[in-house]
Automatic annotation (TrEMBL):
Organism (species): Novosphingobium malaysiense
Protein name: Uncharacterized protein
Amino acid sequence: MAPAVGLTAPAQAAPVVATDSAVYVERIAPDTSRRLEPAIRLARGDRVVTVVRWYRVGGDGGFVITNPLPASVAYEESAADFQDVSVDGGRTWGHLENLRVGTRNATPEDVTHVRWRIPASSAARGRGEIVYAGTVR
């Protein structure tokens, strides 16, 4: 029997991912308890929390989710530690402490985009969510 020629492993289908998001404003009650309310009206200084939900609807492997920040929101933090940020409109990426704007170190106020790499092991669950916070400028 002749050896098979030109056979390759089946190609993995690229992941197909759907996302939705919700934005909440954090309110602090007089007893210092905190609650999240749908962000209907925002004012300067409000802390906003964005929840991005993802659903893998097909394909295999990991994927990347990128969220631009509105110019009116200054980035604070992400609940996940596997995110990268951009301070130049998404052209370059890295951890905030490693980025520069001109000759100075980048600050959270410089962040224009946030990106999360969802590994294949997490993507296999089929769904998940990412949470990040910011402050209204």
